[in-house]
């Protein structure tokens, strides 16, 4: 059971994305999300909830990238709406903090590259394009901000 922790599945998803094994990445992401759904938010200390939120955001971003590579645009769009809706709705900066951490660990570039490729090369419907463009803009802003901070 220890190897089925959400964090482990999330890391495996990232590795699968790097290896371009998108079906496996989706599988790991789904396992992580299912595992995370077993933790009711009302009963957790704030620090634990923050870690669960971080893993969930990261996992959804990996799954979005995987779905885009598999040309499953509807599923990517659904996850994109969850990330944007839940991440930005809190308004406490935790979503941006997760993106910054991913950037520092070199994990954000994978997702960003897939988003760029999908937005440039595929003909997507308007709603999917809108959500993905919004997410891509957030990722690009994060990368710029972090590169400025690292230079200082």
Automatic annotation (TrEMBL):
Report the InterPro entries cross-referenced here. TPR-like_helical_dom_sf
What's this protein's name? Answer: HELZ helicase
Its taxonomic placement starts with:
Eukaryota, Metazoa, Chordata, Craniata, Vertebrata
